[in-house]
Design brief:
- It comes from Micromonospora sonneratiae.
- By secondary structure, the protein is of the alpha+beta class.
- It has one domain.
- 24% of the residues lie in helices and 26% in strands.
- Strands 2-8-3-4-1-5-6-7 form an eight-stranded antiparallel sheet, sandwiched between helices.
- Strand 6 and strand 7 form a beta hairpin.
- The longest helix is centred in the C-terminal third of the chain and has 12 residues.
Length: 193
């Protein structure tokens, strides 16, 4: 199914969503600094996607980390540990961090933190139930990307709410990634918490 034009830059993530997918970005950090904050083991290597799968498999929580513009990004396939609230707060120490993820059970979440404090967070299917220190801070950008701040994501919507969540991440950070960014080579290591 074709997604609306506004979401097409993120449709490359579609095959990853049923298995779990997480993208966390943090302003002004190096890949190593973001890896440290997210709890990536000290055994890290620069690997392409195929090399990472061959070396680590898919049964361990793995982060692949790079930089685009002024933002470090961590992509996790097959899980969402890199975007959990504690990880988001750690990524945001002294800076801004944003995460969007979906688990294999289709739970999806958006979070924006600054200086270790979560400002806005919500399940992507429930954008009207925001939490955080400034839950209304992103109402304008949310509305612009199709996440209505006063009602749930329609159950019968033809697209996953992850796509507007990723589009919201782009709207507030400017970060745009492609399938080629995922393929690397990227700093790669196991998430140990």
């Amino acid at each position: 199914m074709d997604e609306p034009v506004a979401y097409q830059e993120w449709t490359w993530t579609r095959p990853h969503l049923p298995l779990g997918f997480c993208l966390t970005v943090a302003r002004g950090l190096s890949p190593s600094a973001l890896a440290d904050r997210l709890g990536v083991t000290a055994e890290r290597e620069i690997l392409g996607w195929h090399e990472a799968v061959a070396e680590f498999g898919v049964d361990k929580p793995l982060a692949r980390i790079g930089v685009v513009a002024d933002w470090a990004f961590a992509i996790q396939e097959y899980g969402a540990e890199a975007g959990q609230p504690d990880a988001l707060r750690a990524a945001a120490v002294g800076t801004d961090a944003v995460t969007v993820w979906q688990t294999a059970k289709a739970l999806s979440w958006f979070g924006h933190a600054r200086d270790s404090e979560i400002l806005v967070a919500f399940e992507l299917a429930s954008p009207h139930q925001r939490t955080g220190a400034a839950p209304d801070e992103l109402v304008g950008p949310m509305t612009a990307v199709g996440l209505h701040p006063d009602r749930p994501w329609p159950v019968d919507a033809p697209v996953s709410p992850v796509f507007p969540g990723l589009t919201l991440l782009t709207a507030i950070t400017g970060v745009r990634l492609t399938r080629a960014d995922l393929e690397g080579p990227l700093l790669t290591g196991e998430l140990v918490g």
